[in-house]
Specification:
This protein is an alpha/beta fold. It contains 14 helices and 12 strands. The longest helix has 49 residues, at 3-51.
């Protein structure tokens, strides 16, 4: 190739690159202009809505569409509170919702909420919501508390059947997918969903995803429990929209649905609704079985102060908190006194010199089998189980409030802490 040809090619590439950059800038400018025009149009719309407020109050709220836990739990608690009259205006009103992010974490769940809620386009309601916040006096138009929390501190779920239902076509579709996995209508299955940072890294792109890593756990620690369930006749379905590694089990009844190509948004919801129970680490997916009132086993739960106390169908255990400088495990009182019982970021533990140690495979198996035996009526309690349970809840901070919003974290205590964990760690309750 001659020097002249080389230079011509380089100039052409530069020109093409410049065109691409220019196109991107123009596209971004157009987007800003369109967005700006929507905000300008929203000003008179907001003023009209303020004027008609004495006769009809329109309220709106964003659904946390990028995180499945909030899309499930926050939305359901809005409905529960609405139906018992909490945070509900006494005057005639209409509530509207919009997805607060372009990312929809689960399309099937969004579809099901649209059947029972007025969910309007984000491009229309987002400008109205923002402009309403800029003009003083618009708080009454915001749904507010109803859609901004995921903790059932009023213990409302036990008072209501599930709000969501599958259509006949969806039921047929779900049963067909189960048959493709080798699961018949007569066969019970358990879902397993443990947290790692893959989803946040792939989809959310948080600035410091490592701040959430304290909640992660190793999927291989669940193999013992999964294979014990399989030997008892259950299928175990490992779930996850995005996971770091496959589950190392060759048992024919242990299905790594998260990595075998069968996963879909629809089946994530269907499996969560139909499972015998869910094994979880307390990540967002735990909120989907709650929608359908399914039992839940939580392991490796941290922070312990956020234990899901209000859910009557839950048994859980926590990670071990190891004080590195003294080469020992902290007991429950010490965890709370070290200001790590409510710690929501990885640095908070390391700054206190505390290492979080995951539950052993045996601890996970034991609490899972406790759930199995409680559900099938074969559970045999030890004579001191209830006294250990009482001691745990006497120490547990049931009156705690959220440090950021000042709201209670717990209502009536209806969950249970794992019996085997307490039996084997009685010094933990000193």
């Amino acid at each position: 190739m001659s020097a002249g040809s080389f230079i011509e090619r380089q100039l052409l590439q530069i020109q093409q690159g410049g065109c691409i950059v220019l196109f991107r800038k123009m596209n971004l400018t157009c987007q800003h202009l369109i967005k700006f025009s929507f905000y300008i149009i929203a000003i008179p719309e907001v003023l009209v809505l303020r004027l008609i407020r004495p006769w009809l109050l329109l309220r709106w709220g964003g659904l946390a569409s990028s995180r499945i836990g909030h899309l499930a739990a926050n939305t359901e608690l809005y409905l529960c509170e609405r139906d018992v009259g909490i945070n509900v205006p006494k005057k005639r009103h209409v509530d509207l919702f919009f997805m607060d992010s372009a990312l929809i974490c689960n399309q099937q769940l969004a579809i099901m909420w649209k059947r029972i809620l007025r969910i309007w386009p984000s491009w229309f309601l987002t400008p109205i919501s923002r402009v309403n916040q800029w003009i003083p006096g618009g708080v009454v138009h915001e749904i507010g508390n109803n859609s901004q929390h995921d903790r059932d501190v009023h213990n409302l779920r036990d008072n209501f059947p599930p709000y969501l239902e599958f259509t006949p076509e969806e039921e047929d579709r779900g049963e067909s997918c189960l048959r493709a996995m080798g699961i018949t209508a007569e066969t019970a299955f358990v879902c397993l969903n443990m947290r790692d940072s893959a989803y946040l890294d792939e989809y959310i792109h948080v600035v410091d995803s490592g701040s959430h890593n304290y909640r992660d756990s190793n999927i291989q620690s669940y193999v013992l429990a999964a294979e014990e369930l399989a030997e008892r006749g259950y299928f175990v379905i490992r779930m996850g929209a995005k996971v770091r590694e496959s589950m190392n089990s060759m048992h024919p009844r242990v299905i790594d649905y998260a990595t075998n190509g069968m996963r879909s948004d629809f089946m994530d919801i269907y499996l969560s609704a139909k499972c015998e129970f869910l094994i979880s680490t307390g990540e967002g997916m735990i909120c989907v079985p709650k929608l359908f009132r399914r039992p839940i086993v939580v392991v490796n739960m941290v922070p312990i102060g956020y234990f899901f106390t209000y859910y009557s169908k839950l048994i859980g255990i926590t990670k071990h908190h190891y004080l590195i400088a003294e080469n020992r495990e902290l007991n429950l009182r010490e965890i709370l006194n070290h200001d790590i019982g409510f710690c929501l970021e990885t640095f908070g533990y390391s700054s206190k010199g505390v290492e979080l140690i995951e539950n052993t495979p045996e601890e996970i198996r034991d609490v899972v089998i406790e759930m199995v035996e409680r559900l099938n009526g074969t559970w045999q309690p030890h004579v001191d189980d209830e006294s250990l349970q009482r001691r745990f809840w006497e120490i547990f901070p049931t009156d705690a409030v959220d440090a950021y919003q000042g709201r209670p974290l717990h209502g009536e205590i209806r969950a249970r802490f794992g019996a085997h964990f307490l039996r084997n760690s009685q010094e933990w309750l000193q």
